[in-house]
């Protein structure tokens, strides 16, 4: 869920949010899904996106269908799973398990989707879902999933300190010995080497995170377990770029955690541009490459350094994703890239100054030299940024606006 560092390269996934409709309206929902939100993507557009995804290089390993609740539209989902399956994609559906209300109906639905090409499920379950779906509905849904041979991976929001396994066990009445923390890096290795253990399909594999203060979640600040910026580590994030999402209106977003509401995460719209063009632009954005290499906390601090009026929130942040969203909220993509390009350019030039200095004239501490080395490496690996300081200045546009 929330961003974490990894020594494993995340396989590229493409999320298709073809509906905002959901049978429930959870208080923590960042995208305002619910029974009365009928925003949906035309099936022709969704099919086109899957078809274009097959032509990408590199192409996504998995197509993820999300919402809203995609399983409210089984015919549409079945059709899209079929297209993805024919093109050789692995598939995953994000669901709250509402279909566990009736075991026979839920079983028919899941087996029907499995025949259409569904490979895996991610459940969403936490105290906010419990306000609408009783625990026994979720338990019935995961029993159906186990019966069908699916690993049960559960994304849960925990907005309090404590042992995630024990907290989830109390919420849903599932014995702790049937729950284990989900290690995504380990799972990626197992899938790559075809060594996924059988017990993965017999346990609740729990992935936990904290809130992002968007959508309805912003209306309940008392639910946010906040921490100061300093409490978060400088950890690179592999979610951005590796897991982009297409929203019902066609908006192509580099990451789902911004809820489609933060302008700087918007790359473009698939109604107007090809998926290949959008992917190419996304991969070259300084903003996203910075998050991948340095992480959300470093992003927040770099933007704040280049824009002193954007100080840290004295109330803290509900999650590392909240830090990432807050860092660029209110800024357009061009402004974010310009500020980060300038920050990196400063570090690059400071490195040269440090290298030229000697003895007591050394102008900065060693840590700044390390930042300069990192900045130099960032420039060296960037496909958009040129190799010399002068070329870099040109590539950022007018730096006077961000000094």
UniProtKB/TrEMBL annotation:
Gene3D superfamilies: Aldolase class I (3.20.20.70). InterPro entries: Aldolase_TIM, Radical_SAM_PqqE_MftC-like, rSAM, rSAM_sf. SUPFAM superfamilies: Radical SAM enzymes. GO terms for molecular function: catalytic activity; iron-sulfur cluster binding; metal ion binding. Its cofactor is [4Fe-4S] cluster. The keyword Iron applies. The keyword Iron-sulfur applies. Residues 17-163 form the Radical SAM core domain. Keywords: Iron, Iron-sulfur, Metal-binding, S-adenosyl-L-methionine. Residues 384-403 are annotated as: Disordered. PANTHER family: RADICAL SAM DOMAIN PROTEIN (PTHR11228), TUNGSTEN-CONTAINING ALDEHYDE FERREDOXIN OXIDOREDUCTASE COFACTOR MODIFYING PROTEIN (PTHR11228:SF34). This is MoaA/NifB/PqqE/SkfB family radical SAM enzyme. The lineage of its organism: Bacteria, Pseudomonadati, Pseudomonadota, Alphaproteobacteria, Hyphomicrobiales.
């Amino acid at each position: 869920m929330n961003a974490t560092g990894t020594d494993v390269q995340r396989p590229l996934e493409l999320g298709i949010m073809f509906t905002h409709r959901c049978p429930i309206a959870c208080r923590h929902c960042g995208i305002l899904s619910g029974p009365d939100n009928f925003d949906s993507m035309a099936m022709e557009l969704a099919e086109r996106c899957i078809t274009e995804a097959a032509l990408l290089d590199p192409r996504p390993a998995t197509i993820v269908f999300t919402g809203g609740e995609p399983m409210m539209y089984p015919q549409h989902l079945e059709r899209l799973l079929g297209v993805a399956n024919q093109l050789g994609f692995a598939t995953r559906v994000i669901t709250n398990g509402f279909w566990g209300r009736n075991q026979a109906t839920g079983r028919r639905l899941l087996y029907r989707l499995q025949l259409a090409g569904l490979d895996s499920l991610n459940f969403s379950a936490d105290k906010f879902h419990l306000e609408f779906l009783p625990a026994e509905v979720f338990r019935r849904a995961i029993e159906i999933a186990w019966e069908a041979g699916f690993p049960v991976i559960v994304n849960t929001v925990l907005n309090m300190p404590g042992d995630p396994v024990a907290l989830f066990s109390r919420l849903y009445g599932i014995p702790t010995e049937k729950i284990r923390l989900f290690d995504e890096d380990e799972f990626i290795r197992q899938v790559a080497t075809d060594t996924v253990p059988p017990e993965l399909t017999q346990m609740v594999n729990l992935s936990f995170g904290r809130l992002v203060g968007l959508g309805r979640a912003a209306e309940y600040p008392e639910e946010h377990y906040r921490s100061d910026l300093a409490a978060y580590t400088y950890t690179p994030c592999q979610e951005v770029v590796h897991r982009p999402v297409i929203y019902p209106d066609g908006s192509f977003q580099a990451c789902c955690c911004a809820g489609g509401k933060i302008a700087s995460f918007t790359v473009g719209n698939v109604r107007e541009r090809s998926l290949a063009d959008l992917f190419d632009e996304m991969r070259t954005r300084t903003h996203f490459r910075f998050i991948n290499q340095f992480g959300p906390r470093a992003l927040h601090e770099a933007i704040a350094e280049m824009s002193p009026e954007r100080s840290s929130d004295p109330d803290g942040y509900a999650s590392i994703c909240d830090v990432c969203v807050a860092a660029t909220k209110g800024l357009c993509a061009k402004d974010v890239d310009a500020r980060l390009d300038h920050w990196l350019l400063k570090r690059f030039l400071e490195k040269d100054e440090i290298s030229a200095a000697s003895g007591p004239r050394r102008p900065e501490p060693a840590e700044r030299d390390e930042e300069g080395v990192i900045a130099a490496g960032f420039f060296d690996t960037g496909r958009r940024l040129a190799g010399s300081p002068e070329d870099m200045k040109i590539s950022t546009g007018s730096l006077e606006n961000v000094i």
